[in-house]
Every structure is written in structure tokens, then in C-alpha cells.
Specification:
It is a single chain. By secondary structure, the protein is an alpha/beta fold. It contains 13 helices and twelve strands. Helix 4 links the parallel strand 6 and strand 7. Helix 7 packs parallel to helix 11 and helix 9 packs across helix 10. The longest helix is centred in the middle third of the chain and has 22 residues. The radius of gyration is 18 Å and the shape is globular.
Length: 301
């Protein structure tokens, strides 16, 4: 199938990242729409979304359609799934019901359980796991602020080049990954280190990196995830202090997604991150005390 000329893209999930991806795709001429299960909200924001690009002062209105009719998802031949990890089970059931059998599925969630869940539910040839390092913050229902630009890693397989081109032509930096599972573990280590501290302290990423003690603590958390990943068969070893500092600087103005969830009184993804590391460690007869402690602290917020 020629996805470059015939693609109809549904972005499932109208949160910060989903909205940013959908807006960029639509702005650059792609036939794309945003899906939001909440019909009242979808009607309110349809063709009213505004994007505040990184480094700019004035938002621009991008009249992307926001749909709540699940049957419209049947029209898509690419579905980009950008919902919270704790919503995945219900979303997967929805997609199993309505997506056409040729529709490719690109996953953008954080966490260690996302890829296994999709591979259990769909033919592996349709599932394209992705790990993104872009930053976004939804300042209101209709205003999305881009807070960081980073690499999006896409699993390398049959249609990866076409999907990568669609994303790259919409302003995203994309790299194809031979071993996406290693990248998923690496991103999990980063999220496990940055997200809980940002959520608990309500600090932007840049402020976390400026504090030497916090940077050391984040490095220790990531190092603990590295040990669990190695036992699970994935080598993600690196200089975590340097990696985390670089990421925090690149996304300096971003409140991470977990910090945003706490600000809004919403459920966090702690169980898919630090909690999942602890569960994996337990299965491997290991301990992950730092991840366990920060998971408990975030749950207590």
C-alpha cells in the first residue's frame, strides 16, 4: 500500500502528545484527524485547537477535525495511539472492534507493558512500536504548547520507511530502530528517573538537571532500571548522569507528563514505569528499592 499518497491517519488520544502529533500531521497537509472518546470535549475543540510551537510567542489555530464517533476510525489506514498506559486495555478493545484489518498501528505510550499488550491483540505485522522524546503541555482544552523536540524511534519493519517519512515531513526527527525493545527499556529508565521527581517536586525538567543532588538521584534510579533490564536481556548501559542532563536541558521548559497529571489531579502512569520495573525485578529475583520507594511516593500524592 502507498501510505505516502493514500494515508488516512487517526491519532487516538487527545492529550498533550497526541494533540501535538495530530496538529503537526494535519498542519503539513496530511489527511489526519484526532479521536477523543469524550463527545462533549471533541465537539468543543474540533477545528479550534491551537499550537504554540517551541520558542514562539503566538499560537496558531490549526483547524483539525476532532471526532468522537468510533466508527470513523474504520476510515484510517494508520492509527497512532497516544493514550495513557492505564487506558490501553479499553482502547485496544475499541481498536479491535473498529479498525480495518489492514490498518497499521503506531504506539506512542510510555511503559514496559505497551508492546506486549499490542502484540497479544494484533498481528505483529500491523504493530509498529515507537518511543518518542518530544515534549508537550496542554495549557487548556484547545491550546497545546510544544515544550521540547527530541528523537522519535520507530521499530524497523516493512512499512517503517513510509511512516517515518510521514512523521519527518511533519517536523519530527525520526530514527528507525532494529531493537525497539532496548529503546523501550532505555526510555523507561529515563522516565523512571525524571517523572517521579518532577511530579513530587513539581519542577520543570530543566530545574531537575540544575540541582546536582537531584541529578545524582535520577542517575541512581536509572542505574537501578539498567540492572533490571540487563537481567531481562537488554543492555542499556550508558553514562546516565550525562544522558539525563542532556534530556532535561533539551526539554527544560517541560513539566513531564506525570507532573502534569499530578497538577490536574489525574491518575499517573507510575505503575507502568517504576511499578513495572519493580514487578519485573521481582520476577527475576532482584530488588529495585529506589523505584519501589518513588512508586510509593507518587501513589501517595
Amino acid at each position: 500500500m502507498d501510505f505516502m499518497t493514500k494515508s488516512k491517519i487517526a491519532v487516538v488520544g487527545a492529550g498533550s502528545v497526541g494533540s501535538l502529533v495530530a496538529l503537526r500531521l494535519f498542519e503539513c497537509g496530511n489527511d489526519a484527524f484526532l479521536y477523543d472518546y469524550n463527545s462533549v470535549r471533541a465537539e468543543k475543540i474540533s477545528q479550534q485547537l491551537e499550537l504554540l510551537p517551541l520558542g514562539e510567542d503566538e499560537p496558531k489555530k490549526i483547524r483539525i477535525p476532532v471526532l468522537s464517533d468510533k466508527d470513523r476510525l474504520r476510515e484510517a489506514n494508520i492509527a497512532v495511539v497516544a493514550v495513557k498506559s492505564y487506558s490501553l486495555l479499553s482502547v485496544i478493545e475499541l481498536l479491535k472492534e473498529v479498525l480495518n484489518p489492514d490498518c497499521l498501528i503506531v504506539t506512542l505510550q510510555n511503559g514496559l507493558s505497551v508492546r506486549p499488550l499490542f502484540l497479544e491483540s494484533f498481528d505483529s505485522s500491523r504493530v509498529y512500536s515507537a518511543v518518542t522524546n518530544i515534549g508537550a503541555n496542554k495549557l487548556s482544552d484547545t491550546l497545546v504548547k510544544e515544550t521540547g523536540q527530541g528523537i522519535t524511534y520507530l521499530e524497523k519493519k516493512e512499512y517503517s520507511a513510509a511512516i517515518s517519512s510521514l512523521l519527518a515531513n511533519s517536523g519530527f526527527t525520526v530514527e528507525l530502530a532494529e531493537d525497539i525493545s532496548r529503546i523501550i527499556w532505555q526510555k523507561a529508565a529515563i522516565n523512571c528517573a525524571i517523572n517521579p521527581l518532577g511530579a513530587i517536586l513539581q519542577l520543570k525538567n530543566g530545574a531537575l538537571a540544575e540541582n546536582t543532588e537531584l541529578l545524582t538521584l535520577m542517575s541512581d534510579i536509572a542505574g537501578e532500571v539498567e540492572e533490571v533490564a540487563r537481567a531481562a536481556g537488554h543492555d542499556i548501559s550508558q553514562d546516565w548522569t550525562r544522558t539525563l542532563a542532556e534530556i532535561c536541558v533539551k526539554t527544560a521548559e517541560n513539566y513531564n507528563s506525570m507532573a502534569q497529571d499530578v497538577q490536574r489531579g489525574k491518575k499517573t502512569e507510575i505503575d507502568a514505569l517504576n511499578g513495572a520495573v519493580c514487578k519485573t525485578a521481582e520476577k527475576l529475583s532482584l530488588k529495585a528499592p529506589l523505584n519501589s520507594a518513588f512508586a510509593a511516593l507518587v501513589r501517595a500524592l
